[in-house]
Design the sequence.
């Protein structure tokens, strides 16, 4: 059986992500798919790399009301190597629907975070 992928879909790019409020860059529905491959784009908006970026994935069982978990299904931290745009892969499976949040770990750097994704259908 051949693997079938959905269309390349853009996530919402959030800018000025700091350490005060988590910003959400997209909600992805896996109710009819097996997994999602996400290509995160993280861009440091400052002139230095001091702070990390926390990426969190929150899951929900709800189709329409979207009551997401209070705690993330998964979370990881990225320390960018440079102040230039960097791309980081992420694969999510095993949940009905999820959203991706981003937050800076400190007050020095702000980030723009966005990207694209495809869902695996078969």
Sequence:
């Amino acid at each position: 059986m051949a693997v079938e992928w959905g269309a390349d879909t853009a996530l919402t790019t959030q800018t000025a992500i700091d350490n005060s409020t988590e910003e959400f860059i997209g909600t992805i529905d896996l109710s009819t798919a097996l997994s999602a491959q996400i290509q995160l784009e993280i861009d440091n908006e400052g002139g230095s790399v001091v702070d990390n970026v926390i990426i969190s994935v929150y899951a929900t069982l709800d189709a329409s009301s979207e009551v997401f978990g209070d705690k993330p299904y998964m979370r990881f931290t990225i320390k960018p190597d440079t102040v230039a745009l960097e791309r980081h892969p992420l694969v999510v499976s095993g949940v009905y629907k999820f959203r991706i949040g981003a937050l800076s770990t400190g007050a020095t750097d702000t980030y723009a975070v966005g990207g694209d994704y495809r869902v695996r259908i078969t």
